[in-house]
Amino acid sequence: MLKNFLTVGSWTMISRILGLIRDQLLAAFLGASPLQDAYQVAFRLPNMFRRLFGEGAFNAAFVPLFTSTLTKQNKKEAQRFANESFSVLVTILLFLTILGEIFMPEIVRVIAPGFTYDAHRFQEAVILSRITFPYMVLICAAALVAGVLNSLHRFGIAAAAYVSFNIVGIAALLWLTPLMPNAAWAAATGVTLSGVIQLGILWIAAWKAGLKITPQIPKLTKDIRQLFKKMAPGIVGSGITQINLTIDTIIATLLPAGSVSVMYFADRINQLPLGVLGAAAGTTLLPILTKEISKGNKNGAYDVQNKAIDYSLLLTIPAAFGLFTLSIPIISTLFGHGAFTVNNVYASAQSLQTYAIGLPAFVLIKVLSPGFFARGDTSTPVKIGMVTIALNLILNLILMKPLEHMGPPLASSLAAIANVGFLSFILWKRDALYLPMALMKRIGGMVFSAVIMSVVITLLMVFLFHHIPENTILYRLFAVTSLTCIGALTYGIMLHSLKIINLQQTFTKLKQKLTKK
């Protein structure tokens, strides 16, 4: 499992790094402007559907069923089920896309009510949303094919395909911007083009793996009805984080212009560890956990779940402390240039700090949800989801005025923490989650080590950033990189001293893997 975790995590990390480059271009070209706000809303819409239908509820229901069919029956039956699922999914999404294109002005009024007070920003949001909306069909279809590959334990190619999203996005901003009315149009076009490329890469990989995913006339077969039955409630349950973030965006459109943008750039930094660790844990855990449960191996299921929690928190906890401590230097270094002003930097850094508070909870949702999905239960997460969505909305309404751009991120973080509490308690009550004392002590040691790391970083940060010569980008990059490395080293030494990890063994294993590669 660790090998698969690292494989997916490595490819996701590459994608996130390229994503930062893409975001730097967006910040330089558009800043935290009304046009940037319009683009972010336009991208949020198909991205939300991708999380819900593609990587969320659909895959949560599809992967266990496909894996079970492949294990208990044969490859031919699994092929049939994949083709049926692909055809039905694409048909439904094409229908939704056509409706979306027609009624886009009404949709934008719902997801961005604050834009209605600015005719230009509203019109741009409608146009950009129409450009990006077809991405929903392409990426959801790609997610299904990726689910097939993950079930075959081909995690690498499925994770690698998503790198093309940012490569195409960077190319679009650099090459299409001169040919279009503005950079936002170029970025939106790049989103949809990337969907075509991602689907193509994954389809070819599945074909080479011996499973040719081919569209056919959609039919509501027994298997498809079972898929829908398991999928329907999970639309909210598995996509709860995205729904909460969408609520944040809706609230942000009612705040001063630029609030959507500063929150977006903060979320992008927060998504770096969240995407890498959360995606890696959730992607690799579901099929392996399903396999252990189908064999009736209760202790094996415990072990798999606990390893995922351990691996995730080992890196997520220091990431949360590090982002909170280094928020201003990070945002300033990455985005503080071009049209992105000093005020934008401080506002985005404050949003990042409030997102970082909930980072471990965001990742644990990805780790705990498969505990329900692998057991065929998609209804319980939806009940928990409804409660946390309501909580997030209430907190947003309470915090939006006094905290402005910090209100929605803090509301999401608190709702995520509550979500983890509910998921953990119910799994424990069902005897589906057992956290041994050894694991609890390890987690406590991780938190203590991260606190010491933050103290060291803070002391060094005062010295380094007090002596910045003319506040140059190169010096800031050097300072942030140095602080990050020193922080990581401090954290590692603390873990070693507390016997949570053995640095010598860790370096030896990494050396062996690198030598082998």
What does this structure look like?
With about 525 residues, the protein is an all-alpha fold. It folds into 2 domains: about 1-435, no CATH class; about 435-515, no CATH class. It is about 85% helix and about 0% strand. It has 22 helices and no strands. The chain is globular, with a radius of gyration of 22 Å. The mean pLDDT is about 80. This is Probable lipid II flippase MurJ. InterPro entries: Lipid_II_flippase_MurJ/MviN, MurJ. It comes from Commensalibacter oyaizuii.
* pLDDT averaged over residues: 82
- Helical stretch tally: 22
Which regions have little confidence, pLDDT < 50, spanning 5+ residues? none
**Fraction in helix:** over 70%
What can be said about the biggest beta sheet?
Answer: none
Q: How would you spell out the order of helices and strands?
A: HHHHHHHHHHHHHHHHHHHHHH
Global morphology: globular
Percentage beta strand: under 5%
Number of domains: 2
Number of strands: 0
Structural class: mainly alpha
Give Rg in angstroms: 22 Å
Terminal CA distance reads 18 Å
Features:
cell membrane; transmembrane helix; single chain; 2 domains; 517 residues; mainly alpha
Can you summarize this structure?
The protein has 517 residues and is mainly α. The chain is built from 22 helices and no strands.
Itemize the secondary structure elements and their pairings:
Blueprint: H1 2-30, H2 34-54, H3 57-72, H4 75-102, H5 104-111, H6 119-132, H7 135-151, H8 155-161, H9 163-175, H10 183-208, H11 222-237, H12 240-252, H13 259-294, H14 298-325, H15 327-335, H16 342-357, H17 359-373, H18 379-403, H19 407-429, H20 437-466, H21 473-497, H22 503-516
Helix pairs in contact: 1-8, 1-9, 1-13, 2-6, 2-7, 2-10, 2-12, 2-13, 3-4, 3-7, 3-11, 3-13, 4-7, 5-6, 6-10, 7-8, 7-10, 9-10, 11-18, 12-18, 12-19, 13-14, 13-16, 13-17, 14-16, 14-17, 14-20, 15-16, 15-21, 16-19, 17-19, 18-19, 20-21
